């Protein structure tokens, strides 16, 4: 190679380095932001939500406001010298029959009163808390460990159809037995504060909560806004014999940090059913469409992990249609019928899925419920 060619070759490598680095860590900021979800302080008052399973929307003078990402929450509220007295704890996106229990650090129970319930999935609780104490708060529904048959729903890709989402919610409310829903991303078209707020307002008509992860459309404005409103993009919880793991694949990849969490979540889900939900599918069943992970090698690695971990069922969004198939021998469903521009001439239209569970070890059926 001539000297001038060597110079330009070296220059090309140097200039490409930031691009390669940015591609490799495209989801890193969001994964690390997950670690901050559920933690807040104001003066001497502090709150810590176990596993980050709720976004702290507000912590002020004797006031706490949470958006729940799971049906069961456990948190510690530390009060300072000036924080004794009556507190209002507002929790949104909870199960309608969830109960809040409080106790001091010494284990003494504290009375809890419901003072406001404007929607099925919202409660404001009033508690008289001692100063300079560590209060344990537990939110759970009576059936959290019940192993009777039950049902949840799955949907995704509402996007620009947010003004028409009540059609879907009306149909969901009319469908018997849904305990909660999973949202596999693309709640909004651009992820602006106004759109995220509207999505949460529209959810108020539902008779049950929705637990979500984000899609690529939530990255349209700033990739940190979703965390402020909805909480973590990567998390896991258990309910009625099922481990649910929701993952942030909005950038067509998972951050390396998420893989370390996933190892633990897979281990914790081996004894029962395990459902995994994310936005972009690792391998698109219609390969020419390129609607999958950016790296086929990563997709193979991820699916191998799920197969070894004994995952029973997977759900994805991103593709605006419905597909039922298998990846690595694991049943997979793409459900992108929340209202975004549909695939042409596929005959699917807007829809959501219902999943009937027969604990401790069986999924009875996954059914498509058409809205259009």
Briefly, what is this?
This protein is of the alpha/beta class.
Question: Could you walk me through the main structural features you see in this protein, from its secondary elements to its overall organization?
Answer:
With 372 residues, the chain is of the alpha/beta class. It has two domains: 33-140, Immunoglobulin-like; 150-370, 4-Layer Sandwich (Purple Acid Phosphatase, chain A, domain 2). The protein is 22% helix and 35% strand. The chain has helices spanning 3-24, 28-34, 166-174, 193-202, 225-230, 256-268, 296-308, and strands at residues 39-42, 45-49, 54-60, 63-68, 73-78, 85-92, 99-103, 109-110, 113-119, 122-129, 134-140, 150-155, 178-184, 210-213, 235-239, 242-246, 273-277, 313-316, 322-327, 330-335, 351-358, 362-370. The strands form four sheets. A six-stranded antiparallel beta sheet has the order 1-2-5-11-7-8, with no helix packed on it.
What attributes characterize this protein structure?
7 helices; Immunoglobulin-like; Purple Acid Phosphatase, chain A, domain 2; alpha/beta; 2 domains; 372 residues; disordered N terminus; 6-stranded mixed beta sheet; 6-stranded antiparallel beta sheet; globular; 35% strand
Task: Give the secondary structure arrangement, pairings included.
Elements (H helix, E strand, L loop, with lengths): L2 H22 L3 H7 L4 E4 L2 E5 L4 E7 L2 E6 L4 E6 L6 E8 L6 E5 L5 E2 L2 E7 L2 E8 L4 E7 L9 E6 L10 H9 L3 E7 L8 H10 L7 E4 L11 H6 L4 E5 L2 E5 L9 H13 L4 E5 L18 H13 L4 E4 L5 E6 L2 E6 L15 E8 L3 E9 L2
Parallel strand pairs: 4-6, 12-13, 13-14, 16-17, 17-18, 18-20
Antiparallel strand pairs: 1-2, 2-5, 3-4, 5-11, 6-10, 7-8, 7-11, 9-10, 12-21, 15-16, 19-20, 21-22
